[in-house]
Write a structure and sequence with these properties.
This protein is mainly alpha-helical and about 80 residues long. It has 4 helices and no strands. Helix 2 packs across helix 3. The radius of gyration is 15 Å and the shape is elongated.
Length: about 80
């Protein structure tokens, strides 16, 4: 079976995009960082760091899933490009 390298374009700033969209949808829902943290069972400091460092603190798939449920936003919306 032949194997070959396929070309893909991966967004280098995808974590920043996710962080931006978490902030955007959290504010649209009128939910504070503290309330979001409580709802997804993490510390408020975790949410503050994730949002303020544009995602450099990282976020697990489970946390992103919980955020999508709490904010009632489909998970794919967090991957949408940042609007100019």
């Amino acid at each position: 079976m032949a194997k070959f390298k396929r070309d893909f374009v991966f967004k280098e700033n995808i974590i920043e995009t996710i962080a931006y969209n978490v902030i955007k949808y959290r504010k649209i829902c009128g939910i504070t960082q503290e309330q979001l943290a409580l709802d997804i069972e993490v510390s408020p400091e975790f949410i503050r760091k994730f949002e303020s460092t544009k995602g450099s603190e990282g976020l697990s798939i489970m946390s992103l899933y919980k955020i999508s449920v709490v904010l009632n936003v489909s998970i794919d919306k967090f991957f949408e490009s940042i609007e100019s």
